[in-house]
Amino acid sequence: MIVNTLGIDFGTCNIKIYNKNKKLIINERNIIAIEGKEKVLAVGNEAYEMYEKSPETIDVVYPISGGVIASIENARLVLKKFIGSGIGLFSKTCDYYVAIPSDITELQKRAFHKLITSSNIQAKKVYVVDRSIADAVGIGIDVHKARGVLVMNMGADTTEISVISMGSIILSRMLSIGGNKLDETIQSFLKRKYNLTVGIKTAENLKMNFCCAVSEHPDHKTKVPGIDVVTGLPVEREVSQNEICQALSEPLGTVMETMRVVLERTPPELAADMIRDGIYLTGGSSELRRLGDYITNTVGLKVNRFENPSESIVRGLAKIITDHEYNELAQEPREKVYD
Ligand SMILES: Nc1ncnc2c1ncn2[C@@H]1O[C@H](COP(=O)(O)OP(=O)(O)OP(=O)(O)O)[C@@H](O)[C@H]1O
Ligand SMILES: [Mg+2]
Fold first, then answer.
1. Which ligand 1 atom sits closest to the C-alpha of 14?
2. Mean pLDDT of all residues in 45-65
């Protein structure tokens, strides 16, 4: 019987799955389009194409919200599509390694386990791995050392800031600010200042291609298409980089407050390591231009950034699955839940 092992990072925006036998990672939008109550029209990138473009009879929804499972039924459907016969990832039975946030309740952690075991995807064993530990492993850190490592993963719905030493989480805080919040901030800024309504995809595009965390070219302008709130007609407005950059400083400032709390609570010997090595910045939103400079200007620590940061956690899962020295970082979930 063929046995396979899969590593899964259920992001709010993107689901990433490592397939050991095929030695590949898939990374697709974690979204599903459903007509009526249960007719699945599309899953993943194909469903995202319909987002904000579908008629009212079709729901295009994200099964994960704020780092936790919002709809177990929809999450199951996404899993089935990517792990089931859909794109041929499936072998006879599978072991699963699931990355989960540290700063959530035991009940919410347990829900990820239940999702796998109840999805009819031939789960042999299910292990859980702290997201931040997988993240650190994925960017090449030897987490076993007695050394304080500060990882900040900024994804779509969440930012998780963790201090790690000797293979364990010393301290972790998750807040519900990520790329989605930045997109919403751009949307509401345009509405407030320019009476311009734009879709979330336009806001995200602007964020990726025009915005910075620290303004690079303050006078740099771009034309943004949308609907005039007053006339209801399609229009274009000219917007400067500087003003959007200032709007983004509000949610980014809140993230930095949490960073300060984590730094204040870190034991001094570990803090000394972090001052020397700096912050390890990961997650898709770490690609926001000059975010590293913004963080350094605010908390005074240097920032390390990485290629393809949206996949750092799943790359860590791949190493934990394939490297014996790292395998003990995965745990079987606790049987009993008391909260
Ligand atoms: N070049 C870029 N500039 C700014 N943001 C970017 C860029 N590329 C991707 N992003 C943002 O990264 C986010 C997706 O990152 P990621 O895949 O790490 O999130 P996720 O794991 O799905 O979410 P979470 O961890 O919060 O559940 C999106 O909000 C996207 O807009
Ligand atoms: Mg993520």
1. 22
2. 91
Domain check: are 282 and 322 in the same one? no
Whether the per-residue pLDDT at 143 is higher than 50: the answer is yes
State if residue 179 touches ligand 1 by the CB under 6 angstroms criterion: yes
22 Rama sector, left if φ>0, alpha if ψ -120 to 50, beta otherwise:
alpha
Which atom of ligand 1 is nearest to 131's Cα? 25
Q: Are residues 152 and 258 in the same domain?
A: yes
Q: Which domain holds residue 320?
A: 3-134+313-327
Q: Give the pLDDT of residue 86.
A: 40
Total count of domains within the chain? 3
**pLDDT for 227-268, tens place per residue?**
999 999 999 999 999 999 999 999 999 999 999 999 999 999
Query: Per-residue confidence at 56, pLDDT binned at 50, 70, 90?
Result: confident
Is the sign of the CA dihedral 122, 127, 128, 133 positive or negative?
negative
